Amino acid sequence: MKNSLIDKINEAVSFILAKVQPLKPQVGIILGSGLGELAESVKEKIVLPYSEIPNMPKSTVSGHKGNFVFGKLEDKPVMVMQGRVHFYEGYTLQEVTFPVRVMQKIGVKFLILTSAVGAITGRLPLKPADIVLVKDHINFLGDNPLRGQHYDEFGERFPDMSEVYSSELRTIAKKVASRLKIKVYEGVYLANRGPSYETPAEIKAFKKLGADVVGMSVVPEAIVANQARIKVLAIAYISNLAAGISKKALSHEEVLEVANVVGVKVNKLIKEIVRKL
Question: 95 φ, ψ to 5°?
């Protein structure tokens, strides 16, 4: 089918490979709000703005620069998304996860996802600037990126979801964090559509469902990577206490402020994890 999803992926991949060969990225990294500075640590870097890549959706949110950065991080070939796109921006989940399909085609084996999240305190004593390794998720987006036409190149039509987030990678992350003296928790991520923050009643409901943190990303990319048999590590950083727990109004400015503080820790953690892969 002309202009099918496969055609669009192939067009984007051909454009990218023409710019970055002979580099063959093994690790993909998607940076959340305020974490774009990790890309500055990439050596021999080649920067490709999303706006130049055929069929690539554009990021429209403050704190997301909108570049693919290719090069070496800790001597490992990487492709870094300096900012992601979100469901709430009006994109379909196929468009949101298009970059992960591109990574799959290029040959990425590991995907590190990051995300600013709200903390649902209770089981975990979370506070702003804490770090949570995602061990499972609850998809509250009301949609699934695998819905629609299936292509065998993507993987199983009905992929198993028992371990979307690699226990092997979480073990590596915990060991690295311990050595760096960075406290990390493990928890369940609930993905909500946004862009409005959740109500206090919703947060109470999410807590009863077993969620530890709530955000507006990660889950679509993780589902697609899981189908593609890419090992996933998701690192969530607490930007605020969720509605009804926080005593003040929530804002995106607060998210970016906390990211500036926690970003140093998260970036150091990611670099050491990449070194171990």
Answer: -70, -40
**What are the residues whose beta carbons fall under 8 Å from the beta carbon of 41, sequence distance 6 or more?**
73, 267, 271
Residue in 56, 79, 116, 234 annotated catalytic: 116
CATH 3.40.50.1580 given to domain 5-276: yes
**Amino acid identity, residue 230?**
I
Q: What is the pLDDT of residue 258?
A: 72
Helices marked H in the chain = 5-20, 93-96, 98-106, 167-180, 200-209, 219-227, 252-276
Residues with pLDDT less than 50, the chain: 1
Catalytic member of 89, 95, 198, 221: 89
In one-letter notation, the amino acid at residue 12 is A
Q: Quickly tell me which residue has 């990425």 as its tokens.
A: 108
Amino acid identity of 226? N
Q: Which of 12, 39, 64, 165 is catalytic?
A: 64
Side chain identity at 210, as an amino acid letter?
G
pLDDT at 251: 58
Domain range summary for the chain, segments of one domain joined by +:
5-276
Q: Is 252 a catalytic residue?
A: yes
At 11, the amino acid letter reads E
User: Active site includes 205?
Assistant: no
Nearest in space to 138 (alpha carbons), one of 190, 205, 193, 194: 190
Q: Quick check: is 246 catalytic?
A: no
Is 116 among the catalytic positions? yes
Q: What is the pLDDT of residue 13?
A: 96
Which of 12, 39, 81, 216 is flagged as catalytic?
Answer: 216
- Is this structure's pTM higher than 0.90? yes
Give the pLDDT score at 1: 45
| Spatial separation of the C-alpha atoms in residues 131 and 114, rounded to whole Å | 10
Q: Is 56 a catalytic residue?
A: no
